[in-house]
């Protein structure tokens, strides 16, 4: 697999970002590449908009898994790249175009040069939401090819190209989405006393939310409550009768997740009483933490440290979420960060990861999967 091939995959995929479980063009593109590979030891099947590919090892004693995510984000691209998204309002702003291209590169290498162990490559939809890992794990397609160990990577804007970073134990947080509706009585902007203004109610609620992390979480622990969107109203001189607040919760412990949800439920009761309105809350998709197996992580770290192309770094845990956590809850393995050296963070509309990082990842993971 050449750098030029990887770059072509990445740019083609970058142009067609699609929402979770709607990765139709992405799936077709990947299938076209997979069908063009040497087929001798290869079999594949689809699941929803995902794909599972199995390479029959030469003397297998186990099956090793490698997973990539596939979906894009509702981010209007501002990267200035020469190959921007062709899907208005959507962007691969979390590197899944790179992740998929790397997986294709590894697959091509393994199809050309058969590994000893069986390898299953998983192209998993809907990582950003509503979560493809958990239903994929439950699928018959997965169960019949279930690996004995499993690996994945995620691009890391802050690390230089060549870096692979990870740690044993908790790498990413538990997550829960948060969707709240507030309903009251709207009316004329000049007659506020006859209304129950949901812009004011939602604003108080969002401000109150900030006290949860500040005043309910042990300062030696960590949690995040982020509101990403607020929608309310139809016109500047009409008092809004409804508002919708959407966000996400991140914790390292399930006790804190429970505590935060209880506090939010309590606060909403207060908002209802204070602003004479009705509210409802939906916790959306919940991901379990990414917990790296101690032994597999040590083995991967040692392979990275002795690999000529890689600079291995012990990383800290992060409040990011990843539904790869569900695979790791069931199957020992590890997730790593891959340095891509861009000043813009994940989910930023300007993110522009260095494509050179794909060479490092493909070389390292091809060697690593051969060595299992
Ligand atoms: C790597 C990454 O950025 N993952 C997402 C996962 C989102 C889970 C869910 N939709 C949520 O918002 O809680 C992240 O935002 O960390």
Automatic annotation (TrEMBL):
| Keyword Acetylation among UniProt keywords | no
What CDD domains does the entry give?
Answer: M20_Acy1_YkuR-like (cd05670)
What does the record note about the cofactor?
The Mn(2+) ion enhances activity.
Molecular functions per Gene Ontology? metal ion binding; N-acetyldiaminopimelate deacetylase activity
Cofactor(s) named in the record: Mn(2+)
Sorted keywords for this record are: Amino-acid biosynthesis, Diaminopimelate biosynthesis, Hydrolase, Lysine biosynthesis, Manganese, Metal-binding
Q: Which reaction does it catalyse?
A: N-acetyl-(2S,6S)-2,6-diaminopimelate + H2O = (2S,6S)-2,6-diaminopimelate + acetate
Metal-binding in keyword set: yes
Q: In which pathway does it act?
A: Amino-acid biosynthesis; L-lysine biosynthesis via DAP pathway; LL-2,6-diaminopimelate from (S)-tetrahydrodipicolinate (acetylase route): step 3/3
GO terms, biological process: diaminopimelate biosynthetic process; lysine biosynthetic process via diaminopimelate
Q: Where is the signal peptide?
A: none
Entry's HAMAP family?
DapEL
* The name this protein goes by in its record: N-acetyldiaminopimelate deacetylase
What organism does this protein naturally occur in? Answer: Marinococcus luteus
Q: What is the lineage of its organism?
A: Bacteria, Bacillati, Bacillota, Bacilli, Bacillales
């Amino acid at each position: 697999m050449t750098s030029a091939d990887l770059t072509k995959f990445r740019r083609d995929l970058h142009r067609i970002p699609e929402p979770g479980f709607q990765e139709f063009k992405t799936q077709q593109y990947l299938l076209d590449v997979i069908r063009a590979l040497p087929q001798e030891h290869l079999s594949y099947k689809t699941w929803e908009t995902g794909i599972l590919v199995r390479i029959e090892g030469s003397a297998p004693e186990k099956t090793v898994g490698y997973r990539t995510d596939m979906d894009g984000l509702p981010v209007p691209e501002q990267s200035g790249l020469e190959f921007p998204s062709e899907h208005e309002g959507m962007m691969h702003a979390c590197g899944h175009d790179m992740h998929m291209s790397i997986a294709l590169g590894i697959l091509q290498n393994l199809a050309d040069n058969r590994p000893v162990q069986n390898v299953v490559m998983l192209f998993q939809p809907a990582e950003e939401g509503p979560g493809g890992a958990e239903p994929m794990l439950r699928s018959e397609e997965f169960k019949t090819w279930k690996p004995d160990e499993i690996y994945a990577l995620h691009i890391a804007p802050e690390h230089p190209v060549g870096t692979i970073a990870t740690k044993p134990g908790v790498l990413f947080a538990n997550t829960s989405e948060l969707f709240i509706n507030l309903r009251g009585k709207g009316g004329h902007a000049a007659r506020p006393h006859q209304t129950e203004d949901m812009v004011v109610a939602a604003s108080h609620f969002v401000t109150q939310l900030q006290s949860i992390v500040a005043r309910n979480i042990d300062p030696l622990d960590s949690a995040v409550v982020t509101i990403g969107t607020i929608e309310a109203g139809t016109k500047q001189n009409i008092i809004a009768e409804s508002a919708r607040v959407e966000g996400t919760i991140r914790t390292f412990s399930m006790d804190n997740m429970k505590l935060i949800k209880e506090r939010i439920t309590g606060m909403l009761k207060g908002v209802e009483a204070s602003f004479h309105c009705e509210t409802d809350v939906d916790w959306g998709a919940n991901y379990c933490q990414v917990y790296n197996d101690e032994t597999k992580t040590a083995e991967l770290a040692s392979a990275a440290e002795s690999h000529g192309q890689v600079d291995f770094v012990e990383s800290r845990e992060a409040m990011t979420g990843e539904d790869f956590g569900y695979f790791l809850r069931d199957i020992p393995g590890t997730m790593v960060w891959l340095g891509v050296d861009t000043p813009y963070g994940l989910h930023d509309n300007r993110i522009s990861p260095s494509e050179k990082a794909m060479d490092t990842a493909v070389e390292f993971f091809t060697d690593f999967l051969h060595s299992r």
